[in-house]
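Why this split exists: single-chain examples teach little about how molecules sit against one another. For that reason, every record in the complexes split bundles all components of an assembly together and asks for one structure covering all of them. Below is a record exactly as it appears in the raw files.
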Amino acid sequence: MVSTTTNALETGTSGIRRLPGQLLRARLPWVPILILGLILVCAAFAELIAPHDPLAINVLNRHMAPGESASHLLGTDSLGRDILSRLIHGARTTVIISFVSLLAGAVVGTVLGLISGYFGGWVDAIIMRCVDAALGFPTVLLAMIIVVFLGTGTINIILAVALTFWARFARMARGDVLAVKTQDYVTLARITGVSTPVVIWRHIFPNVVNTLTVISSLLVGQIILLEAALSFLGLGLAPGAPAWGIMVAEGRDILIDVWWLSLFPGLAITIVVLAFNFFGDWLRDTLDPKMRQAQ
Amino acid sequence: MQKYIITRVGQGIFTLWALTAIVFVSVHLTGDPAIYLMPIDASSKADYEALQRQLGLDKPLIVQYGIFLKNALQGDFGTSITDRRPAMDILASRLPATLQLAAAGMGLAILVGVPLGILSAIKRDSIFDKVAKIFAVVGMAAPQFWVAIMFILVFGAIFKVLPTFGRGGPDSFVLPAFVLAWSIMAGMMRLGRSSMLEILDSEFIRFARVKGLHERLVLWKHALRNSLVPMLTFGGISLAGLLNGAIVVEVVFAWPGIGRMLLDGVQARNFPVVQAAVLASGFFYIAVSLVIDILYAYVDPRIRYSE
């Protein structure tokens, strides 16, 4: 009896332990990983990599075409700011906003999902109705309402994005909890007097980790697109800030003569989202082949 | 079935109610609407108090919410701050443009996405399949506002073949509808391909082939019908994407619809207009997903019994 219990406990937590091995055995998607690595390096060391200050105005050099000058490889914008440097600093904006809002949404959603699935009853009913309400609503609209009433700024965008995505985490976490909470090792832990938070954290949460990793990686692309759309609509950061969505908007009115203003930042968004989507697909197929059909 | 419909309608009403509460609370949390509504020239304290009384802002918050809800139910969302027209009138004048654009986008997504997905499955791993896959993958990753701008550059400015501004004849629908539909089309293609592949691999198709049925009959009669169901569901889910996209697309193509009304209202802090636009799109979205869910439960009995 004792030995069965320890075995069961081990299987319960093996989700995390097995993870690196599983990932290493699979063939890695090198191109997406390289692109994402590049973006992370740009975000971390933007000051060192960028050839110019992204905010430095030099009206004499305005509207330089890409390749026109060796020091401005991708050209300059209407205020003579270097596009390449703005793109590199824009990577930081994108990475910070999307990761912090993903993390916030994931934490809130997972905690609520765990609570909802574990306790059931009226707690579950209330949380799930909120999830339905949040899911039953277009993301841009919801984010817009939040930004309108809270104002623009980094924190508010993060809040807006997190509030539109938490429900997906809650729903997935709840589903996983329902699947494991009747397992023998959970019941045993409960009977032997392990406190509820410890049961949830030690015995239930590890089973949810794989799903959460997959969901997160699949959602990053959507989050980046939402953040970019809000920035483009002028509901994101302050005008002039180095964010890709804002840069596309800045080139909109002078599109015909100065096409490179909108082209490059949009390309950057597309490539990064593509890389995240491929990486997410790969992660899903590797960690959780069952989800292939569910998606 | 009846129980399922009642539960689902109840959920829809709850979501809509939650939306009115969010909108109402947000307006009142973020400052005094009377300040936004004050004419610039009249700013004495007496004027302000008179306006507060006129707007009912001196009453308790819960009473105000009741009045707001009652008026909203009767289609009265207040008067636009900028041009003093009832917000409902503005909404009514903008609604057709958005509905037409949404219908065109959805039609395009279905008419192009479904056949392309099925063809990719039939011609698996061919050049056609690969090109279709690239088309789908890029469609899901490229931001709509950027695609729209690049299309304006290419088709409007360089080749000058399509109108890029406002709502006119049928040709003015081409670019906005395509931009709106691309990501949904991409989803339809990928889903259509995978569900068709799965079905082509199933026992009953193998049996139909073994039986000696003509390949065309196997594909078009046995396989196609069964692969359409998941795509129908996806059509329902992508409605949210359609509304999200409509805001961006309307802004870029200067389309006179609700999306632009919403953004204009937001920028001018024109709350009655924002409320009307948000509640109308919320209502539209909730109502359509309700209808789709019920239709789907009708088609697929597994859903209504699992609830």
